[in-house]
Sequence to fold (76 residues):
Amino acid sequence: MKIDRNDYPTILRFDEIAEGDIFLDTEGDVCMKMDSIVEEEGYHTYNAVNLESGEVCFYEPFDRISLPHSAKLIID
Fold:
């Protein structure tokens, strides 16, 4: 999978974006916000997925993220 990025990101808080929005975290990882998932035991909650690794992760509502103007996913 290849991800092309031509962006001039806008800085926002995580809780200001909608589910399905693509964003960049502070480390530059390309992620997508998703509906929150709580594990059965209730110890872990996830609300985003890293599009490069497929790993689910959690962001606090006040965490700063970058929202690109557009994103393109290419699958070869």
